[in-house]
């Protein structure tokens, strides 16, 4: 005996005293009548198109079979369990039973409901149902799209007794294709080949006479392709002054991706100096952020050289000097008011954040250009969230300065007549890198305003931005790999320098310990002017080492990745990856220390057997024009081996001695 009485909702026609059975019968009769009408209609048509229908019917049947099979297979792979539960379409005779009649009524209702809801879906659902119900009808021109789908609908209705609205589970969800934003997909193209695309300075619009003379004085008579493209674009954004861009709008941010050694530094220094040249009040208008002290020093030197003869002042904040000395070079207090002593600041992120937070005389409220060099690296390591600190500092005015400031800066907000009067000082971002990321999510962190991209890379798929990124390599670079074993690596580098006479060599290891050990070994072996370059050295020692290497006093510089990016050392003809780099970006920057400014250069990578496949694939995927195999025969190293073995013993003692000294 049932403990509870369960009342089911069976539709509007339920109730009124009529029994289930009689209602079912009535419904069945109704459906049969409908089927008959349809049958008659189709027979009438058949008379007219007898032959045609026969052919079509045969074809449709085979198509239906095929689709059914296909649907089955698909379903099997997607829902192996679900498939077992599938039921066949009901036999019309079975409909005489009460349950099926009820189900049929629900199905009919379902068609109606779906029709009301969604104009697009309704047609197909409607067609499917008619086919199912009128299985007796011979007109099979309206095949369901997917038989399995149809059976599922039947099943779910019959199981629950209620109409399931929406049919969400039936929608085939299309895989979303990621597409690059237009500015990334369609960049302004920069020619990769420097030597055959040099542009005479006089042909580049907008550069003032003073700077043209300066360039020529520095031995530059032609501009490189990246400079010929980017300099006019930046100059155009300041053609109406520092406050408004073209057409009175905020100037667009600019991103530049061009190979190593292609001259990106001058591409921002020239237009920025020209934009500030006529300034009246000294305030920080340009902030250039770079990842290392050495790079900051290098860029600061070029800025200073082109600012010479103008009233512009360049200050470096990279921890080379004490905080107090840097502070004194930034501002001075006259009559109780702080006055800026810097127009252009070149900084590393750590020291920059220190000044933002601890130096009251450091104000970025008049900043016009934020230049981010080695931008991909700067995005990846947002040291102390330096960018958000800079952005905050830009909209923070010095206490008491609001009253005297004519052009008050406001944070970006919806544009209204009031917000544009007086016009706020725009902050334009300029990004530079040889390996600029194309990852929109990463670039989004920078909050770029209608960015414009200049790139020498235009081969990446726009519909698959997540696929391996491709970069351009310098035209004059020849890449080699040298298969070797771990124990033979030191001998190989000695062979390169002593026998093959490659000099100067810039040699990269993956750690400072490895750099130090190799340096000691080469020193012990003798006959080579070697030096190491890593964080083991003080900033001043590093500066001196780079200078000596550039002067040719050092034949072999063994470095960590501290010298991999941006460092411009004249005359490096050969780069050796003593340890294979793990990432393609590291490889591109390391080998980019040679073959700069349109010159030629060689890059060798020592590869252990286990590294070969992965490394070669990585380089190929990145768009390398081709890396060649260079075999050094074991016989060539043999004569050095006895001495090398002896050196290894001495090296062990030296390292022990160093460790002991450390603990004393
Ligand atoms: N127009 C030019 N004519 C001659 N030499 C140039 C010109 N422009 C730049 N150079 C020289 O080319 C070298 C490379 O320039 P730069 O350091 O700006 O390259 P880069 O693109 O910034 O490289 P990286 O990506 O490695 O930082 C420098 O020594 C620079 O002095």
From TrEMBL:
The keyword Membrane does not apply. Residues 49-63, 94-120 have a biased composition (Basic and acidic residues). Residues 34-158 are annotated as: Disordered. Keywords: ATP-binding, Helicase, Hydrolase, Nucleotide-binding, RNA-binding. GO terms for molecular function: ATP binding; hydrolase activity; RNA binding; RNA helicase activity. It is an enzyme of class 3 (hydrolase). It catalyses: ATP + H2O = ADP + phosphate + H(+). Its EC number is 3.6.4.13. Pfam families: DEAD, Helicase_C. InterPro entries: DEAD/DEAH_box_helicase_dom, Helicase_ATP-bd, Helicase_C-like, P-loop_NTPase, RNA-helicase_DEAD-box_CS. PROSITE patterns: DEAD_ATP_HELICASE, HELICASE_ATP_BIND_1, HELICASE_CTER. Residues 245-454 form the Helicase ATP-binding domain. Residues 492-638 form the Helicase C-terminal domain. Gene3D superfamilies: P-loop containing nucleotide triphosphate hydrolases. RNA helicase. The Q motif is unique to and characteristic of the DEAD box family of RNA helicases and controls ATP binding and hydrolysis. PANTHER family: RNA HELICASE. Belongs to the DEAD box helicase family. DDX51/DBP6 subfamily. This is ATP-dependent RNA helicase. It comes from Coregonus suidteri.
């Amino acid at each position: 005996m049932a403990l509870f009485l369960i009342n089911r909702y069976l539709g509007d026609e339920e109730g009124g005293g009529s029994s289930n059975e009689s209602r079912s019968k009535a419904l069945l009769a109704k459906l049969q009548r409908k089927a008959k009408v349809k049958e008659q209609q189709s027979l009438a048509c058949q008379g007219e198109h007898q032959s045609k229908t026969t052919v079509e019917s045969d074809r449709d049947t085979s198509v239906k079979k095929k689709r059914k099979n296909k649907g089955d297979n698909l379903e099997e792979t997607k829902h192996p369990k679900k498939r077992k539960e599938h039921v066949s379409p009901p036999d019309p005779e079975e409909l005489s039973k009460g349950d099926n009649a009820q189900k049929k009524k629900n199905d009919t209702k379902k068609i109606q409901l779906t029709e009301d809801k969604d104009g697009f879906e309704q047609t197909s659902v409607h067609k499917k149902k008619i086919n199912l119900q009128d299985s007796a009808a011979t007109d099979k021109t309206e095949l369901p799209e997917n038989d399995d789908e149809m059976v599922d609908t039947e099943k779910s209705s019959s199981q629950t007794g209620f109409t399931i609205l929406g049919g969400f589970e039936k929608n085939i969800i299309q895989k979303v294709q990621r597409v690059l934003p237009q500015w990334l997909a369609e960049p302004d193209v920069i020619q990769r080949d420097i030597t055959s695309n040099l542009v005479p300075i006089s042909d580049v619009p907008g550069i003032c006479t003073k700077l043209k003379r300066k360039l020529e004085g520095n031995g530059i008579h032609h501009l490189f392709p990246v400079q010929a493209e980017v300099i006019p674009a930046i100059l155009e954004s300041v053609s109406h002054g520092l406050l408004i861009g073209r057409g009175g709008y905020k100037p667009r941010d600019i991103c530049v991706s061009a190979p190593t050694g292609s001259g990106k530094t001058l591409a921002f220094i020239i237009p920025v100096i020209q934009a500030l040249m006529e300034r009246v009040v000294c305030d920080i208008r340009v902030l250039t952020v770079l990842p290392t002290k050495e790079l900051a020093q290098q860029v600061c030197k070029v800025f200073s050289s082109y600012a010479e003869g103008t009233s512009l002042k360049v200050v470096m904040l990279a921890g080379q000097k004490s905080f107090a000395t840097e502070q004194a070079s930034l501002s001075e207090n006259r009559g109780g008011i702080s006055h800026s002593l810097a127009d252009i600041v070149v900084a590393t992120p750590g020291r920059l954040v220190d000044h933002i937070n601890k130096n009251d005389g450091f104000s970025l409220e008049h900043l016009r250009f934020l230049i981010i060099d080695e931008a991909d690296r700067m995005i990846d390591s947002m040291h102390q969230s330096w960018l958000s600190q800079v952005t905050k500092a830009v909209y923070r005015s010095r206490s008491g300065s609001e009253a005297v400031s004519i052009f008050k800066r406001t944070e970006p907000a919806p544009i209204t007549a009031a917000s544009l009067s007086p016009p706020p000082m725009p902050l334009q971002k300029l990004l530079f890198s040889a390996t600029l990321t194309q990852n929109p999510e990463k670039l989004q962190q920078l909050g770029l305003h209608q960015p414009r991209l200049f790139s020498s890379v235009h081969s990446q798929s726009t519909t698959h931005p997540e696929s391996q990124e491709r970069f351009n390599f310098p035209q004059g670079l020849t890449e080699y790999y040298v298969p070797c074993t771990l124990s033979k690596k030191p001998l190989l580098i000695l062979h390169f320098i002593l026998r093959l006479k490659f000099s100067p060599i810039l040699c990269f290891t993956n750690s400072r310990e490895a750099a130090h050990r190799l340096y000691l070994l080469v020193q012990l072996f003798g006959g080579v002017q070697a030096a190491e370059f890593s964080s083991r050295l003080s900033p001043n020692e590093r500066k001196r080492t780079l200078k000596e290497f550039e002067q040719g006093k050092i034949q072999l510089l063994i470095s960590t990745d501290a010298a991999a990016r941006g460092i411009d050392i004249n005359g490096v003809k050969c780069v050796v990856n003593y340890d294979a780099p793990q990432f393609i970006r590291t490889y591109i920057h390391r080998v980019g220390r040679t073959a700069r400014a349109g010159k030629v250069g060689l890059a060798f990578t020592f590869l252990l057997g286990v590294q070969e496949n992965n490394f070669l694939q990585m380089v190929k995927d990145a768009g390398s024009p081709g890396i060649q195999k260079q075999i050094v025969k074991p016989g060539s190293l043999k004569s050095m081996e006895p001495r090398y073995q002896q050196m290894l013993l001495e090296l062990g003692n030296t390292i022990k001695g160093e460790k002991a000294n450390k603990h004393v």
